Amino acid sequence: MRTFTGTGSLIRFILRRDRVRMTVWTVSLVGMMAMTVPTLDEMFQTPEQRLGRAAIMETPTGIVLGGPGYGLDTYGLGAMVANEMTMTLLVALAVMSVLHVVRHTRAEEESGRAELLRANVVGSGAQMTAALATNAVVNAVIGGLITLSLVANGLDAPDSVAYGAGLALAGITFGAIAAVCAQVSEHSRGASGLAFLVVGVLFMFRVVGDIAERGGSAPSWFSPFAWVQQTRMYDDLRWWPLALYAVVIVAVFAVAFLLAGRRDLGAGLVAARPGPVNASPLLNGVFALHLRQQRTSIVAWTVAVALFALSFGTLIAEIDTMVEQNPELVTRMGLDAQNMSSAFLGMLLLYVVMTAAAFATLSVLRTRAEETSGRAELVLSTAVGRIRWMGSAMLVSTLTAIVMTLLGGASLGLGAALATGDDDWVGTVTEAAAAQLPVVLMFVGLTALFVGVAPRLVGVVWAWFGYGLVATIFGPLLDLPEWMMDYGPFGLVAQLPVEEFETAPFIVVLGAALATAAVGLAGFRRRDLATV
Amino acid sequence: MPSPAIDVRGLDKYFGRFKALDGLDLTVGTGQVAGFLGPNGAGKSTAIRVLLGLLRADGGTARVLGGDPWTDAVALHRRLAYVPGDVALWPNLTGGQAIDLLGRLHGTANPARKKELLARFELDPGKKARTYSKGNRQKVALVAALASDAELLILDEPTSGLDPLMESVFTECVREAKAQGRSVLLSSHILAEVEKLCDTVTIIRKGVAVESGTLDEMRHLTRSTVRATTDGDPSVLRGMAGVHGLEVDGDTVTFDVDNAELDDAVRALSGLGLRSLVCNPPSLEELFMRHYGDELAALNGSGAGNGTGAE
Q: How far apart are alpha carbons B260 and B263 in whole angstroms?
């Protein structure tokens, strides 16, 4: 098997290179699990509390974050873990696996390091195999440790093993999907973008299927996100859904391998075509240049956000059905159908806002990549000033983030309107999205601040973003105190349509966005340009 | 005498605690081609980035075309063009697009000149930049810079990655630029290139200029190599002031002599009855080696020597 020559040394090399990164992922995920499980047990002790909790998991919001709802009737600790932790873990494992596989396949090729390796005694399939093998290792370790921590918390061993194995297999599946995407796209950014899109669509299949019917329906079964919970662990354990992972992993790996064999090192599946000899008259300044550089990701992100929002928005039709079938649930939670729908759309809108904020951050960070690659040096040695260069990049980020937020809100509302026939949703949700704009813009300003003043510390923005994400998702589930939510970026302004609009926070956050942007620009003008 | 195109006095630049420039002096006369020589890491690129306002000087003064490179950056950049040593391009733009873009950002796009230069450098402008080799990326930046109307060209190792044929095209282009009255700062570690093109040379080492002036001036300060055949025994030159490394092989003698003592040495030889005489002025390489020779010796001594560091 010459194709795989050198796989072993590459595996050791990757494990060594990524030992810190892998450890951080493992410790964070296992640590989160180890801390959350006892908390869940403590918070919900009486059967009434547990059933009240189970009722939340039956709402559409609960299903999006939770799952098909096995074990909700008694809702013991195991069922709680299965329903409340699984999606977060799966999403985290998907992110980890996609980034890992792309980093060790396409990114290596793009940087030219793969060429150095491939010229050595390394088979053509070794790099991808090593990337997938190491991804399997880290997923297996995480799954295994999670099983141990669950057993340590007194949960049934077979169910815990099924759970840990399911999580690990799902992570390996996402890694294999990423390996296929890495064959298709020439750029690591494009490869991971494509992989995340596929992962998002798969997530969506599970949500649609699970909302349609308790226990999941046909669409759920298309999604690796569903299979872990379909083992019904801690309820009525069955092992065979795990076999689906094995089948898919083998199939997807084979596809990736076939594709890899059909192309040259460094090339995508589609050969690079010659382009225009002259630049179009539109490419006449730095704004046009920044826009052009980000064109693909702007379109991809915006379309993805709009489509996801539109399809999630239609899910509120299920709320009406749910209210009809189970009026008792609604009264128990002290809600009526209208504000249940509002709460659902409000939550989905927060995801739109988070996506736009993530885009804004990445988009402004592109300036840093331009700088460290030396391309900024070339541009700034022409008659382009620092403020104009950085400012127009921030303008591109700002405009895109605004369009993405408003369009996401409008699509969400449109989905809701299409599903219920109530046209008012479009206006209501778009307005709610507009009320969140300062938060999105603050990420433009904040990222610019770090790029301009302390580029090395830009991780702070991501840390705060992550904190906000966790606080927003887990805050309500874990009953975190209100102040913890307030420190996160996504609790800063009033959340329409559930809450009333408040002017003061809107103005303050908008002011903060402008102030950080200004300081960032001033800092960028004053400092040395990074040199290659 | 018009004010120089570039005038640098006592320039300091720190990166943290590392002193990259240590009181550097550098002058480029208007209409002249100035060579800026030094091995990798001597501070050439740092100095150039200060001149472009990309880095801020920590001490000393720098004037470019009469202006301050930091505060007047944009206005000055309209009048100069820069070719970095390692050209990074936008992978999804073609070479032609990148050249047009740079020309437009500079404000002096010149399609006719672009076309001519593309032909001379044999660059295919329809290829995406990610498919270009290092040499081709270098050509993109060169074409963009040479197609502009800039009165000052700042070229940082512009021929690294070019093949010898393209190097001669480049040499030609620089000569034309000079004929048009433009000033050129040419940083390089290729000595032949500098020797061929430059009116003045500055040799930099560890952030400080160790030697500068015209080649003639610098030669005057150094030694020539003499090889002679005489009737009499040339050993009498041994121990003469200014004579170094004397080697006698029968009636043939080779030695280096300080240029100030050249006259005395030739007189002595002539007294012995000269049959043949070859006297070579020092090449730039020898000037260069004189300033870096000890480093080279240290490198060779440790068994890790790899020449002058030239690529």
A: 7
